[in-house]
Amino acid sequence: MAKVLYIDFERCIGCRACMLGCEECSGHDHLSRMFVDELNPGETVATSPTPCMHCVQPACAESCPVQAIQVTEDGAVLSASHEKCIACKNCTYACPFGIPRVDEQRKIMYKCDLCYDRTSKGRPPMCVSVCPTDTIQFLDEAEAKAKLDKQVQFKWDFGGTVIETRTVIGIPDLQTHRYGYNEVTEDVL
Fold it and tell me: What are the residue boundaries of the 4Fe-4S ferredoxin-type domain, all occurrences included (predicted)?
């Protein structure tokens, strides 16, 4: 059974340990492949780690004219091969999540490759290892998609085009929380 990233927005404290861990991972050339986004700037301090979504049918790989992006048998979408990448940026334009980046100096695309050097040996990705709040977890795919304590999302509708991802997002409870923070009601004020 393949393992996938499970991200729980409500647990993120914005410490960016995932980014620092990613930068220090061997083979990443001090370029973080994990990003931390502010979910609603100016209204909350809520943040979320943003890794590659590891799409079941990755548009980045399909749009690559030199087949520099490989998909492993267990579904990890790898960063571009150094030998093949021509830095054309097709992958950056094709990805609906805006994940791949191009290192302009080295002329190569880079993105989260699920720390395949670690995960192929049964070890969790570096971002999972350093996250102090378990915001990022490395779970069996079926377990992540059937998370019983939280609604999850792994299918995304882009104007009628549905994209299934192996990265699974735990949806914040919008009935009682907004990105992890309690709604302020008038009777509390």
Answer: 3-22, 43-74, 76-105
Write down the pTM of the prediction. 0.87
Residues 83-139: tens digit of each pLDDT: 999 999 999 999 999 999 999 999 999 999 999 999 999 999 999 999 999 999 999
Residue 188: pLDDT band by 50, 70, 90 thresholds?
A: very low
Residue bearing tokens 């290892």: 129
End-to-end Cα spacing for the chain: 50
Q: Where are the alpha helices (DSSP H) in 13-145?
A: 17-24, 59-63, 90-94, 116-119, 126-130, 141-145
> Is residue 187, in this structure, part of any structural domain at all?
no
Residue 159, both tokens: 């104007």
CATH (domain of 73): 3.30.70.20
* Overall size of the chain counted in residues: 189
The answer to whether 34 and 112 have CB atoms below 8 angstroms apart is: yes
Q: Where in the sequence is the domain holding 65, given as residue range(s)?
A: 3-170
